[in-house]
Specification:
About 45% of the residues lie in helices and about 15% in strands. It has about 180 residues and is of the alpha+beta class. It has two domains: about 55 residues, no CATH class; about 110 residues, no CATH class. β2 and β3 form a beta hairpin. α5 packs across α7. The radius of gyration is 16 Å and the shape is globular. The model has no long low-confidence stretch (mean pLDDT about 95).
């Protein structure tokens, strides 16, 4: 399946394919069926951010090690990060908690990983657009990182904050 994805998206790094696209390709099929507007249909429509498939074929990817603040994430991606944190840490019911059955466990596993290694388990996949970043894949990882780093206004154990590296790895796509 990876080869099939790579045939249609040769510019995608293998790590991005494995972390983001492969699980969905296995459940939804590959390549995505396209509408007359070139935008994938069914579940792929939202997974690929309502963008035409050709858009993805033109992206250039670069792995970068740096700090990306929550304020550098596009506004439309920020609510998911906050809702994941609120559901996992504060126990709030919201759209994310009702749509992801194992949200708390996934979040906590990333926090444990960050606490022991200082970094996220895998590099999130982001799109650079207008000096901001749109999240393709990695909402749980980023939400947990922002929690560990102290972006959310709640008490965070000082050992956790101290063990969290400011700079993290990201796969960043450029248009």
């Amino acid at each position: 399946m990876i080869r099939l994805i790579k045939d249609t998206l040769p510019n995608f790094p293998d790590e991005v394919i494995k972390e983001w696209l492969l699980p969905f390709a296995e459940s939804e099929g590959w390549p995505p069926q396209l509408g007359s507007d070139g935008i994938p249909l069914k579940r792929w429509r939202d997974l690929l951010g309502l963008r035409p498939f050709g858009f993805f074929q033109r992206l250039d990817w670069k792995k970068e090690h740096k700090h990306i603040s929550i304020h550098e994430i596009v506004k439309k991606s920020q609510p998911a990060l906050v809702q994941i944190f609120e559901a996992a840490i504060l126990g709030r019911q919201n759209m994310m908690s009702s749509s992801i059955s194992n949200l708390k466990e996934r979040f906590e596993s990333v926090v444990i990983y960050i606490k022991s290694r200082g970094s996220m388990p895998n590099a999130p996949a982001l799109l650079s657009e207008n000096d901001k970043y749109y999240i393709f894949d990695g909402n749980h990882r980023l939400s947990a990182y922002y929690y560990c780093y102290g972006y959310f206004k709640v008490a965070v154990e000082s050992e956790l904050m101290l063990s969290t590296n400011k700079n993290q790895n990201y796969w960043i796509a450029y248009q």
